[in-house]
Specification:
The chain is an alpha+beta fold. It contains four helices and four strands, in the order H-E-E-H-E-E-H-H. It has a single domain, classed as Alpha-Beta Plaits, CATH 3.30.70.3370. Strands 1-2-4-3 form a four-stranded antiparallel β-sheet.
């Protein structure tokens, strides 16, 4: 009867995999929670620390997705939001980030470093001929 236990555990693993395939992945929307919000009148921006819950999606969300969700939460234009940092702890289903929300595009281009601005430009897909 020793051979029965490994077979039984193998059967259990197969059933679990079948159940997981039926579940829709990424069906839960990301939830944004503002941890702190500080106004910087000299630079004409708001500095925001936030947390994004991305449980069913797996992995850290893309910067452009997080930018859109944060802009929707703050009720501002997506072009005015620049995410400086977005990190997920190992095994966690939430990310903590820092972002700057500017009053105008001119002010954002004047203050933000070029590499931060370059990160927020969506990648162009190559044209197929």
């Amino acid at each position: 009867m020793v051979w029965w236990r490994p077979w039984k555990s193998w059967l259990r693993k197969v059933k679990v995999k079948e159940l997981r395939q039926d579940e829709p992945h990424g069906s839960e929307p990301m939830k944004v929670k503002i941890l702190s919000q500080k106004r910087n009148p000299l630079i004409k921006r708001t500095e925001v620390t936030f947390e994004i819950e991305h449980g069913g999606r797996g992995g850290t969300p893309l910067r452009l997705q997080a930018r859109g969700e944060l802009a929707a939460t703050l009720k501002t234009k997506i072009e005015l939001v620049y995410i400086k940092k977005l990190e997920t702890k190992t095994g966690a289903s939430s990310s903590i980030g820092e972002a700057n929300v500017y009053d105008s595009m001119e002010q954002a281009k004047l203050v933000e470093p070029e590499y931060i601005v370059a990160r927020h430009i969506p990648e162009e897909k190559p044209k197929e001929e």
